[in-house]
Specification:
By secondary structure, the protein is α/β, with parallel strands linked by helices. It is about 40% helix and about 20% strand.
Amino acid sequence: MNLKKKPVTGMKDIMPREMEIRNYVMGLIRETYGSFGFSSIETPCVEHIENLSSKQGGENEKLIFKILKRGEKLKLETAAQESDLVDGGLRYDLTVPLSRYYACNANDLPAPFKALQMGNVWRADRPQRGRYRQFMQCDIDILGEPSILAEIELILATSTLVGKLDFENFTIRINDRRILKAMAAYSGFAPEDYDTVFIILDKMDKIGADGVAEELKKSGFAEQAVETYLRLFDQVTGDIAGVRYLKETLADVLDAQVAQDLETIIESVEKVKNAKFSMVFDPTLVRGMSYYTGPIFEISIDGFAGSVGGGGRYDEMIGRFTGVQTPACGFSIGFERIVMLLLEKDFQVPGKGQKTAFLLEKGMGQEKLLEVFAEAEKLRGEGACVSINMMKKNKKFQKEQLAAEGYGEIREFFAK
């Protein structure tokens, strides 16, 4: 039987050029987020299946890579249901593991706690451009801070990072789950129907307002409710004025402080930001995760159809572990998508030292060889990258390959 040389579907091998960019981005993440006071942590890639299936991960819970019990615990002959076979799974995001981590270690952590977490996650999703079954996530979260200081800090830190990666004029869209619910209540939808309404609303950018209206009516919702709902979106602008319009219109069903906080977040970020981007109020922004409880946000970059980052407030998740409500808010960047975009625009990692290749002729004696190694060590001590290689017959092609790898200087050493 021949072994398979291609990676498992939805996963990929990483070539040196991409790895160079990945390492650079990871270093910049640690440096940038560290300057905002975030501390690096790590959680296991395997989580208890009960935690992953707790109805906090939305559609992602359908995409879990589940792990069979091991050894004597695995009893195939008597298994009657899945829980008899499975006790763990690969994490599908970093938020559920973080919540468990905090619930377990809160007494040994500062309050509030500002966490930075980078690591692979796994989803049995349909692979497509910029989407894999194994991919790196990068999250920053602030736990224990109930005020909008958390949202402002998270948006500023993330936008600073994206700006440092040479992305300009990107957009951060912001909304609040409580505004979504207030708009649905004002229009006459029942609370038990909100999730269905929001799933359809989330398609607005793909099927437009007419398509959303048609799907809502096909789902059995009253025509008057649908028309009232869509009319609200027609009147809302993507700025502070739009927030104020909803604050007045939804006064009977929306806490005025919710709208006021959203205004403050937008205005504060706009005034102190140090990257070129726009803050846009988007009442159609839903975010798929069911655990969000307040402000939600996403980053979009020109030329890429999907988002390259997102997050929001999830004040109820940690309480599922501890029984005590803990304020929590996080922002995740789409690490894989950002790396893909950097590769596509031929991004060059800044500050790289000189790369020099030594080509050695075969038959070189030990004394000559030691001279070459001493010269290489000297250059490395000065910060250069030096690769020592044996000279090949097709020297012209070998030099072309080295030049393509970024070796700006190629030196030849002969036996005599």
